[in-house]
């Protein structure tokens, strides 16, 4: 050991000199940077987009910073949706908090109640910003009492995918674009029968979002006070006839043997996609954001329909999922203005068109589909347009605009448990009732802790 | 029974001889604290007390505090509920199922890891040509991270295109929903976990086997003891401290299993693999329910304290020699 030290001994003065030099250079560089930035107002933007989304956001930030010289937007990737809520809660009011941040659909109520944000409506009214250019369904879930809370951004809906090649191979008529439960059951059963069980008919991930949308499409609320839109929800209802019917539909396919269970979570969606792409599975339901990825492999053999509806009922439409952009109210007005300017920039028709083309999220700007980029894309591959059309044709109401409750994540957990139980053959009503009871308890103590309800 | 071997007897005797411990004790008696020394004691202990206080004791007490409240959407304690959280938790069927699942998992992983590790080590300890190659292979899982092995096993467990079900189909056996059937999911995660622990366990056992004095086996051979007798009456007793060590380490590590569960099942299906540690994470950082998560943390701490106590009381006695 002493030998080792002695080797360095003659050089320590040099090392110290080098360190000092580095410090001086670093200091200069930092000083210069700070000087250059001080001219512009810095707007820190937190987002949770990975892959193509992140790439695209970086491109928009660059374009925005080039286009004007008043603001300097700095985009920072913050990991998952869940984590960022905690980070906002912990940094609000400090220098570390962002001016603008992206937060997921089901955190809307929590963000609203936090009082940490400036409702976007304030800027809309001030600037007479034309809200009509934004898709009504996307606005509805981020609104309270008709006032827009945050700027809708990356949006998706649930969609149903089928493999046209499989259907062609066995001579099966494809489902209509607005299918009922029995339309899907027919196709799924035929795939199973005609392939002699070699190809599974359908699957559905034990994913609460899918369950919620089946119920929404039937036009039935899951929580009282109109899904929490007209008052604080105090009770949930997971056992409505519509919910039971949706699960009976799945059960029918399980009992027939054409249904394959992939479980829940990221693995389930990866496995079902792998199975679907390799022709081992005919039909599955997932986020519309998957369309691009599936299209890359299947090309014109990819079939997409709207989300299924109960037999003999008109589709009520489903909620827009994804995330929106919130403006923190702990920053000076100038910074908040910068955040507002940048959010407007992100949702203009041109940027929303590139956003949909590059990421697969649905454009929230109605006029995006008239942009040459999307026009060409849809002409070449009409299947990419289906989910966007589903979103555009929906008239928002309280049952298809999400559930306005703080802490929906545990509700999703308990619904997913119920779904897994049902998929494993347990009683539908009992499983859903257990989920309902368990979440009602959570809801009650949440309301108590938050002084609500 | 071990006493029939002279060398073991000798070892026992040397262990019982007055060791260095007594000497240290004698020195401490002669050493008296002076007032000046107290100042130095605080000076030296102070920083570590400070660090422990901030990073260990404060969070512990805070957890205890939070467990007595309801927390709002921002994790702030708002309504004092006393022991209600504990009562809710301990009467919850789901939580009891979690405790049971954790028990099954920990015992399963520990038992199978020890059995398989010992078997592999015993095989690798033989003098066979080319055994060095297998010794390397057996330790290979040490170099594989949790995420990689989880993904690798996920591929094998895939219900439609996974290799396990493909083999089953080929042999005309019924296919299994490895990760979506509640019973099989537990089997699957235990298998993966055992596989991951195996490399390290093998290495430790192999080292222990190599250090058993050869003279013992020579003596046994002379007395005509069968190789099975030799294994149970020489090998096992001689490696018992290693055995204890491996049992404790594997148990602790499987109690802490998080990455594997998160990547493979995320606690599902129907909570079948929702182990206590994973549950705490989910309640706190996914569901945002800090009060419940704090309560679970305290209960888990108590459970682990009890198990550690039992382990040292019971297993330490069984170290034979």
TrEMBL record, chain B:
Entry-linked Pfam families: BPD_transp_1
Residue segments, region Disordered: 1-22
Residues in ABC transmembrane type-1 domain copies: 99-311
Transmembrane regions listed in the UniProt entry: 39-61, 103-124, 136-156, 184-209, 230-255, 298-316
Keyword Ribosomal protein: no
KW Transmembrane helix (keyword) present: yes
SUPFAM superfamilies registered for this protein in UniProt: MalF N-terminal region-like, MetI-like
Domain of life the protein comes from: Bacteria
Cellular compartments annotated: Cell membrane
Biological process, per Gene Ontology: transmembrane transport
InterPro entries reported in the protein's UniProt record: ABC_transporter_permease, MetI-like, MetI-like_sf
Segments forming a coiled coil: none
Topology relative to the membrane: Multi-pass membrane protein
Keywords linked to the UniProt accession: Cell membrane, Membrane, Transmembrane, Transmembrane helix, Transport
Classification via CDD domains: TM_PBP2
PROSITE patterns on file: ABC_TM1 (PS50928)
A GO cellular-component term linked to this record: plasma membrane
Primary location recorded for the protein, binned into one broad class: membrane
Similarity annotation: Belongs to the binding-protein-dependent transport system permease family.
Protein name per Swiss-Prot or TrEMBL: Sugar ABC transporter permease
Organism: Lactiplantibacillus garii
């Amino acid at each position: 050991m002493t030998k080792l030290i002695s080797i360095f001994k003659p050089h320590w003065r040099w090392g110290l000199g080098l360190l000092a030099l580095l410090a001086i250079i670093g200091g200069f560089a930092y000083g210069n940077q700070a000087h250059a930035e001080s001219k512009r107002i810095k707007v820190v933007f937190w987002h949770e987009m990975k892959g193509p989304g992140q790439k695209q956001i970086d491109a928009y930030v660059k374009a925005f910073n080039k286009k004007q010289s008043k603001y300097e937007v700095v985009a920072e990737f913050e990991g998952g949706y869940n984590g960022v809520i905690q980070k906002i809660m912990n940094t609000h009011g400090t220098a570390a908090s962002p001016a603008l941040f992206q937060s997921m659909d089901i955190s809307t109520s929590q963000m609203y109640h936090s009082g940490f944000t400036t409702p976007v409506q304030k800027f809309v009214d001030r600037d007479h910003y034309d809200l009509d250019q934004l898709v009504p369904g996307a606005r509805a879930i981020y609104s309270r009492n008709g006032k827009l809370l945050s700027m809708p951004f990356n949006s998706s809906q649930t969609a149903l995918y089928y493999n046209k090649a499989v259907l062609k191979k066995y001579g099966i008529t494809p489902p209509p674009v607005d299918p009922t439960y029995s339309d899907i059951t027919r196709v799924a059963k035929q795939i199973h029968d005609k392939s002699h069980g070699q190809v599974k008919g359908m699957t559905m991930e034990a994913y609460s979002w899918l369950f919620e949308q089946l119920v929404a499409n039937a036009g039935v609320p899951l929580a009282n006070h109109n899904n929490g839109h007209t008052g604080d929800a105090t009770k949930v209802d997971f056992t409505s006839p519509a919910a039971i019917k949706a699960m009976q539909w799945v059960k029918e396919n399980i009992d027939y043997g054409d249904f394959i269970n992939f479980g829940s979570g990221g693995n389930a969606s990866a496995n079902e996609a792998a199975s679907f792409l390799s022709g081992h599975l005919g039909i599955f339901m997932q986020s519309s954001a998957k369309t691009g990825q599936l299209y890359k492999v299947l090309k014109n053999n990819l079939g997409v329909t709207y989300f299924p509806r109960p037999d003999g009922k008109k589709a009520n439409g489903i909620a827009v999922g994804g995330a929106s952009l919130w403006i923190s109210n702990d920053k000076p007005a100038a910074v908040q203005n910068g955040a507002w300017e940048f959010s407007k920039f992100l949702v203009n028709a041109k940027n929303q068109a590139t956003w949909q083309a590059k990421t697969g999220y649905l454009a929230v700007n109605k006029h995006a589909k008239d942009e040459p980029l999307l026009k060409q894309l849809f002409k070449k591959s009409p299947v990419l347009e289906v989910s966007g059309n589903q979103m555009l044709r929906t008239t928002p109401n309280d049952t298809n605009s999400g559930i306005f409750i703080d802490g929906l994540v545990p509700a999703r957990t308990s619904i997913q448990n119920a779904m897994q139980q049902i998929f494993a053959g347990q009683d539908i009503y009992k499983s859903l009732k257990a989920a309902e009871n368990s979440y009602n308890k959570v809801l009650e103590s949440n309301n108590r802790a938050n002084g609500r309800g | 029974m071990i006493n029939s071997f002279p060398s073991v007897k000798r070892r026992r005797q040397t262990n019982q001889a007055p060791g260095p411990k007594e000497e240290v004790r004698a020195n401490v008696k002669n050493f008296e604290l002076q007032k000046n020394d107290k100042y130095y004691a605080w000076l030296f202990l102070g920083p570590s007390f400070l660090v422990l206080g901030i990073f260990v004791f404060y969070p512990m007490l805070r957890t205890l505090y939070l467990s007595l409240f309801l927390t709002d959407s921002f994790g702030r304690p708002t309504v004092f509920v006393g022991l209600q959280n504990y009562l809710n938790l301990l009467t919850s069927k789901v939580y009891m199922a979690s405790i049971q699942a954790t028990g099954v998992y920990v015992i399963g992983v520990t038992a199978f890891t020890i059995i398989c590790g010992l078997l592999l080590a015993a095989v690798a300890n033989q003098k066979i040509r080319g055994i060095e190659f297998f010794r390397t292979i057996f330790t290979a899982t040490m170099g594989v991270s949790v995420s990689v092995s989880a993904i690798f096993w996920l591929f094998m467990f895939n219900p439609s295109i996974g290799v396990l079900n493909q083999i089953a189909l080929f042999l005309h056996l019924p296919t299994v929903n490895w990760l979506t059937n509640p019973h099989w999911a537990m089997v699957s995660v235990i298998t993966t976990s055992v596989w991951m622990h195996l490399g390290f366990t093998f290495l430790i056992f192999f080292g222990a086997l190599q250090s058993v004095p050869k003279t013992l086996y020579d003596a046994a051979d002379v007395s005509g003891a069968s190789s099975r007798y030799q294994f149970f009456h020489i090998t096992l007793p001689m490696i018992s401290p290693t055995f204890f060590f491996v049992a404790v380490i594997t148990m602790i590590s499987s109690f802490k299993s998080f990455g594997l569960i998160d990547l493979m099942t995320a606690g599902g299906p129907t909570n079948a693999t929702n182990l206590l540690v994973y549950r705490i994470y989910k309640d706190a950082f996914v569901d945002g329910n800090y009060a419940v998560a704090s309560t679970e943390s305290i209960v888990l701490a108590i459970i682990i304290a009890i198990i550690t106590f039992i382990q040292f009381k019971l297993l330490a006695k069984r170290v034979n020699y």
